[in-house]
Amino acid sequence: MARHLKDKGYDLQRVYDLNQETAAALAEELGCAHAQSLSEVTAHSDIVLTVVTDDVAMDTIFFGPEDNLFKEAKNTLFINCATLSPSVHLKLETVAAEIGCQTLEGCMASSITQAREGTLYLMIGGKREVFESARDLLEDLSVSLRFVGEAGKAAQVKALVNMVMNINTAALAEGLGIGEALGLDLEMLCEIFSQTGAHSRVLETDAEDMLGRDHECYFSVDHAAKDSAIALALAKEAGIQTPLAEATLAQFQKMVQQGLGELDKSGVSELTFKSRAN
Fold this sequence. Notes:
Oligomer: single chain
CATH superfamily of the largest domain: NAD(P)-binding Rossmann-like Domain
Order of helices and strands: HEHEHEHEHEHEHHEHHHHH
Low-confidence stretches: none
Number of helices: 13
Strand content: 5-15%
CATH architecture of the largest domain: 3-Layer(aba) Sandwich
């Protein structure tokens, strides 16, 4: 995302990451500074984009006792792009208003390639007037974007998007696993899936990787488990039964327990192919 914004002519001031070597290399590439602290990012920026792993990480970067992004943050806009629990975004918006800054959810669909090319699909949550003020930047990051509603709503939608995607991924892995056990030509099976009701976006993105056991990470098993768990928590609050999502979560949690959480979600096929499963 930073590389794409640089290409579009934005004035990048600071980059920050826990992996300091990565951040330093990117800062040199982009011609900006490698921030040594979170508060340094805010001090030199009008708009700050964040992407972190989970709720705990988000709480740390905004509310850490020694250093955080909310220090001296008046008049700053934070666009938060990670998939998090909706309550986190509500908390951030409330605290931001108290200290004179603003927040938006910028929940992302797609992956690394689309982030680099500025062709993400973005689901935006927060105050509409804040969204309108940042629309030009958000459009430069995306091929399409949708304002979903007030703070927390985009996070709800994104959790459901990823829950359904994860179910589709696990289902594809099972279908191909059964096909292998039956001795079917799996390339032929994928072609037939693509022409029938078995077709899905996951078939397009993950089938080849499942067959070739290429699980280079674009969306990790760790994140799949986290996001399905967020969706299941929302379902529980709403009183909805979710047997498919629960079974899918169990598959991804099994992989995490086996130390495979850093694989791409396509790695769930390692559990479903008879020739591979432990």
